[in-house]
């Protein structure tokens, strides 16, 4: 995950404030769960079947993300593509959570254009990239499809 000038590198920072999370896959897809480690590298943590869940002991500064196993599409938690855990212990009240914080993995809300682009990509195999130019689509959409296809691999 390389950063541009406009965005900082997404990586785990420190391991000071604990968080206890329950990731629940609320989609009908198989979802891979990734922790973004200290080197900004995705580290596969678990694979969740539809409706499955996993318990994670993590830290507040540790980002997590989720991908559809088949199509590599990013799933969301709380309508965000990156999940940042909340502290288990509240320093203001002195109280800790009795239960794990549930983080429901869900399908991202997409525009009609995004839905169409994802559907086209899902129908194309890895060898069919040249077919994109033959679809009689505007060049801007073909370029976006090629870019998305290359980013998935």
Description of the molecule:
It is a single chain. The protein has 153 residues and is α+β, with helices and mostly antiparallel strands. It has 2 domains: 18-106, Immunoglobulin-like (Sandwich); 112-151, no CATH class. Helices cover 17% and strands 31% of the residues. The protein is built from 2 helices and 9 strands. It has helices at residues 112-123, 139-152; strands at 18-25, 31-36, 42-48, 53-59, 64-68, 74-77, 89-90, 95-96, 101-106. A 7-stranded mixed β-sheet has the order 3-2-5-6-9-1-4, with no helix packed on it. A hairpin with a 4-residue loop joins strand 7 and strand 8. Helix 1 (112-123) packs across helix 2. The relative contact order is 0.17. Residues 10-87 form the von Hippel-Lindau disease tumour suppressor beta domain. This is VHL domain-containing protein. It comes from Anopheles stephensi. Belongs to the VHL family.
């Amino acid at each position: 995950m390389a950063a541009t000038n406009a965005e900082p590198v997404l990586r785990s920072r420190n391991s000071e404030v604990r968080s206890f999370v329950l990731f629940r896959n609320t989609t009908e897809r198989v979802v891979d769960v990734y922790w973004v480690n200290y080197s900004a590298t995705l580290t596969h943590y678990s694979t969740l079947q539809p409706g499955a869940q996993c318990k994670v002991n993590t830290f507040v500064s540790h980002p997590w993300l989720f991908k559809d196993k088949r199509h590599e599409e990013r799933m969301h938690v709380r309508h965000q593509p990156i999940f940042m855990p909340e502290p288990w212990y509240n320093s203001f009240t002195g109280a800790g959570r009795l239960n794990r914080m549930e983080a429901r993995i869900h399908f991202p809300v997409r525009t009609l254009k995004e839905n169409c682009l994802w559907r086209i990509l899902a129908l194309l195999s890895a060898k069919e990239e040249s077919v994109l130019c033959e679809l009689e689509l505007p060049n801007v959409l073909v370029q976006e499809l090629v870019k998305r296809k290359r980013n998935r691999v």
